[in-house]
Design brief:
heterodimer, A: alpha+beta, 1 helix, B: alpha/beta, Oxidized Rhodanese, domain 1, 2 domains, 5-stranded parallel sheet, 4-stranded parallel sheet, 10 helices, 31% helix, globular
Chain lengths: 74, 275
């Protein structure tokens, strides 16, 4: 078995830059979402198609990022 | 590059060598089960590479058991790799060095590069003939504890390197975006320099060249002529920087402060610098 169609791209989700990584292993597509800086994976999902895997992972990522608070200088 | 780094090609050629054991250590503890380098063992950092009762690195007896059941003895070449540019592979490397393992290496580029190169993967979990492992140490010259970090900060006795993102360093955020907040205060240890871990790596997950790495740290006044303490949030990202400074650049006195910001940023009365 080999990873097929390995793909990485950067985009902005809300106000946060993220990296979307997806690939197919066997019959399953996997997607992981990293925050670009510092580069930590914080959401992942799988599905029968790349689109479904990415959509699920992005939905989770959006939910998690909404909980990240930004503190301005006091 | 130094002998502590091997390429994906090297792993493909040597993964079945009798004296070589490949081990995957991921942030995402499910990644190994999706598919891994054929013949590789998988270690779970949340249960197998730490003390699960108190906050601490793996106890020596537990390490000996883990290595033994993974078919590793003291002469085995251990090659570690993992996701997130080898974060927890470096964490495992650091602990193996604390306990004196002689030949441990990291696969340059980690899981990301192996996948991107469409190399062979397996979902089979290999079984190993158990071996006897005798650890030494712990070598505390590789690990910084709170009192030493406090002295370093107050007396400028060591260069403190904060490897978190710039937004964590300034206190704009308390944890990497999308991850749970694990501290009460944001900011950084007074006197620390911000050199994010990601600056050590290329986009494909491999480490930058030795010359690039030397320049990265020299530009911040870190040239290997004095003690250095690296920290992040829980000590895994700083393991990457510790690995770079100690094993790629060959600096003598480099410690990883694994208490990191989850210790300092929760400590009552600890001084915090912003931005």
């Amino acid at each position: 078995m080999k990873a097929e169609g390995y793909n990485r791209r950067r985009q902005v989700l809300g106000t946060w830059p993220i990296e979307v990584e997806s690939y197919k292993l066997g019959d399953v597509f996997y997607c992981t979402i990293n925050n670009v800086d510092p580069g930590a994976r914080f959401a992942r999902a799988e599905g029968p198609t790349r689109e479904e895997a990415e959509a699920k992972a992005l939905e989770k990522a959006e939910r998690y990022l909404a909980q990240t608070r930004r503190f301005t200088a006091t | 590059m130094a002998e502590v780094l091997v390429t994906t090609d090297w792993v493909a050629q040597h993964s079945k060598d009798a004296n070589v054991r490949i081990v995957e250590v991921d942030v995402d503890t499910t990644a190994y089960d999706q598919g891994h380098v054929p013949g590789a063992a998988g270690w779970n950092w949340t249960t197998e590479l730490c003390d699960t009762l108190v906050r601490d690195i793996i106890p020596i007896k537990k390490l000996e058991e883990l290595l033994g059941k993974t078919g590793i003895d003291n002469s085995t070449t251990i090659v570690l790799y993992g996701d997130n540019n080898n974060w927890f592979a470096a964490w495992a490397f650091w602990q193996l060095k604390i306990y004196g393992h002689a030949d441990v290496r990291i696969m340059n580029g980690g899981r990301k590069k192996w996948l991107a190169e469409s190399r062979e993967l397996s979902t089979d979990k290999p079984s190993f003939s158990a071996k006897t492992y005798k650890a030494t140490g712990p070598d505390t010259s590789l690990r910084a504890f709170l009192p030493e970090v406090q002295q370093a900060s107050a007396g400028k006795k060591a260069a403190l390197v904060d490897v978190r993102s710039p937004a964590e360093f300034t206190g704009e955020i308390l944890a990497p975006p999308g991850l749970p907040e694990t501290c009460q205060r944001g900011g950084h240890i007074p006197g620390a320099k911000s050199i994010p871990w990601g600056k050590n790596c290329n986009d494909d997950g491999t480490f930058k060249s030795i010359d690039e790495l030397k320049k990265l740290y020299a530009d911040q006044g870190i040239r290997g002529d004095g003690p250095v303490i690296a920290y992040c949030r829980i000590g895994e990202r700083s393991s990457i920087t510790w690995f770079v400074l100690k094993h790629l650049l060959g600096f003598q006195n480099v410690k990883n402060y694994d208490g990191s910001w989850t210790e300092w940023g929760n400590l009552v009365g600890a001084p915090v610098e912003k931005p």
